[in-house]
Design a protein that fits this description.
Two copies of one chain form a homodimer. The two termini of chain A are about 40 Å apart. In chain A, strand 8 and strand 9 form a beta hairpin. Chain A is of the alpha+beta class and about 240 residues long. Chain A contains seven helices and ten strands. The longest helix of chain A is centred in the N-terminal third of the chain and has 14 residues. The first copy, chain A, is about 25% helix and about 35% strand. Chain A has two domains: about 60 residues, Orthogonal Bundle (Arc Repressor Mutant, subunit A); about 160 residues, 3-Layer(aba) Sandwich (Chorismate lyase). In chain A, helix 1 packs across helix 3 and helix 2 crosses helix 3. In chain A, the strands form three sheets. Chain A has a six-stranded antiparallel beta sheet with strand order 4-5-6-9-8-7. Chain A is globular. At the A-B interface, strand 7, strand 8 and strand 10 of A face strand 7, strand 8 and strand 10 of B. Strand 10 of chain A pairs antiparallel with strand 7 of chain B, so a sheet runs across the interface. The structure holds a DNA duplex (19 and 19 nucleotides).
Chain lengths: ~240, ~240
DNA sequence: CAGTGGTCTAGACCACGCC
DNA sequence: GCGTGGTCTAGACCACTGA
């Protein structure tokens, strides 16, 4: 263990080592990490330094800690964090849980801009998945999801796709989404999308263009969602 | 200094004391706080405990620290944080700086729901301010702002309102906005608003209903903004 | 140079979960 | 009781700032 080569603070070097272990799958979601003292001994630093690195990772929601039990790798499949990235609410802020049905999937080549987004080569194959999300049995969100086939082999042959794709990414492909970037705008619906949302063509809808980022910083999914603005809002708190 | 009465961790008690001093205006924006050792001595705790409380406040952006210089109360008037709550961008993410002109101001009684929002009594007087924000000389955002007159006496008589109302709240009224809650939806513009935004009536626009929260947790402003969706998006990152 | 915050260590004690 | 993480302390040294 050579921790002394960089000019980074020790705790940052420890942090980098630990994050790399998560990225490499050395520790998997829900797994228990060694105790602070065990890590400190292994890495040749003091327990307080390990603690500082661990706490930073907790702040970034990569880990969870429970007093008396231990330190765990976050599963983004838990109720508490499963809907962390799902920002649609009833006006006033009431949480809402969506159901999902897949309308279609197909494979296609990535366009130039898409290649740039995913930062991959020109042979990039994508899966394009179209989904309809319903809330309280009302059609609410029409969603076009793009995934690089290289990251998610045969994802289009998956039957029983879960309600949350992020769960699938993590459990089946070992890819954890830790950040999303949304761009919201308003559009007039085309007839096709309006039909799916049981709205009139010409209605206004929220359009959300989302890039999902994994633990190693890569964009691993891009989606465009059209949300019926009659009954739902996109709700976000900025601190 | 009695810090031992609660069953809170020491650093949390220190945190509460320090936050209270900010709320009460004992320390004002841009002011330098005493050093860690000075605070530790005054409060009868160790320097490490003070540091933990200070660092939490830095994480919440209430304070800023500079090695070798000291600890400062955040001014939300700085370039870096001034536009922290301004989320409109060009598609693709390029930052954008708005200009603002006030269209009208008037005083009126609060409605029942508004009284609830501001958590004040029934005699609550509001100032209703209508503003147009332009970006690169193009009308972009039409905004209706509601402020309790009790919090901001004679704010409607202010001339030369600044581009950022938050700056005014802080500098003139000692009220710091530390959090905003946005609810986004899509609407079809009425003729009146469309005219102001130089759009056709019937165009789609982003509607943003925002509550602004001050350091003591109260809602101190409510606004409704209509943003031309042709050239701008609302951009947000969730981690 | 003195004073500030930033890092790192070592050790004590507490609170919690589990056997 | 034992092992875990959580808090608190005390002290050392470093890095940056400004007189």
């Amino acid at each position: 263990m050579t921790l002394t080569t960089n000019f980074q603070p020790l705790y940052k070097q420890v942090y980098d080592v630990l994050v790399k272990r998560l990225v490499d799958g050395y520790w998997k979601p829900a797994e228990t990490l060694p105790s602070e003292f065990a890590l400190a001994k292994e890495l040749g630093v003091s327990q307080g330094t390990v603690r500082k690195a661990l706490n930073q990772m907790v702040a970034e929601k990569l880990l969870r800690r429970r007093q008396g039990k231990g330190t765990y790798v976050s599963e983004h499949t838990q109720e508490s964090s499963l809907y962390r990235f799902f920002r649609y609410r009833e006006p006033g802020g009431e949480k809402v849980i969506p159901e999902t049905t897949v309308i279609s999937t197909r494979r296609r080549k990535a366009t130039k801009p898409e290649q740039l987004t995913f930062n991959l080569d020109s042979k990039l194959q994508l899966v394009e998945m179209i989904r309809l999300r319903t809330i309280n049995d009302l059609p609410a969100i029409y969603e076009i999801v793009l995934q690089p086939l290289a990251l998610f082999p045969d994802i289009d042959k998956e039957r029983d796709l879960p309600n949350s794709l992020y769960t699938l990414y993590q459990e089946k492909y070992g890819v954890s989404v830790v950040e999303v970037r949304d761009e919201l705008s308003a559009v007039i619906l085309t007839e096709e999308v309006a039909d799916q949302l049981a709205l009139k063509a010409g209605s206004a809808a929220l359009k959300n263009t989302r890039a999902s980022i994994s633990i190693d910083g890569r964009v691993i999914e891009v989606s465009t969602a059209y949300c019926s603005s009659d009954n739902f809002v996109y709700s976000v708190t900025i601190k």
